# Entry
Amino acid sequence: MNYRYSFMRFPEGRLKAVTFSYDDGVRQDERLIEIFDKYGVKGTFNINSGIMGSAENRGRWAPDELKEKVIDRGHEVATHGAFHRAPGKQRTIDVIRDTLDCRLGLEKMTGCIIRGMAYPDSGITGYTVGSANYEKIRECLRDLGIAYARTLLGDNDRFEVPRDFYAWTPSAHHNNPKIFEYVDKFNSIKEKAYGLAGNMPRLFYIWGHSYEFDMNNNWDRIESICEKLGGKSDVWYATNIEICDYVKAYESLIYSADGQRVYNPTLFKVWFTADDVIYSVEPGQTVEIG
Ligand SMILES: [Zn+2]
# Structure
């Protein structure tokens, strides 16, 4: 092996990715999607299958709107508990039912395969006596076909790609007072030369509820965030599940013992660096490094 470090790069060799996650399936999502589309960013919308709107009740998405107004516009629909029950405050069997019911419900409404999740009403912390615990819940979610689950309350500007997709911690809620400092810091991150150990890919993940923009009268805040983060050639704009699937494809690459030959057994084209050089490997193909 004659290179020191190899790091994942996002599609087209990009160093950075941006994603958004908005909860509870409220009507204000529609306005948020208009803003996302205007700036070319992608979001995941976490829906409670048991608390939907209808033609009469327009406060939340109606079941027949999700496919056309969210998924067909390039965004993701993900589970958020059929009845929005905090996993840390109930028995494992109830978590299983709330998650499975939500997945079944959303798949019936959309005709799609729904694999994402945001933990309802809490993250992975706050488990109480007699309730499920995180390790058990993680195993259950895997068995339920959930590919990732978003937690909360760990705001930071490290922009890390998660190691544990069932404890996926966003960079920040949109109301974080430092959000624009985070945005500036993220935008200033560039590819470093000389194969440095710190040259890993970066991910900026913002979450919230779109009704908060009405509540706080601050739609201009998300508009400004999207404007500042959008339209960058070194950023991949993707939904949560797209990022999760891509990272898993990268982690599936198979290397020769000397690290010089890389085989891609997945259906995704995958990019990575070896020192300062960016390589890509097509599905089913092998590349030689150096
Ligand atoms: Zn919620």
Notes: The first strand starts at residue 6 and ends at 9. Residues 14-254 form a domain with the TIM Barrel fold (CATH 3.20.20.370). The first helix runs from residue 29 to 39. The chain has eight helices and twelve strands.
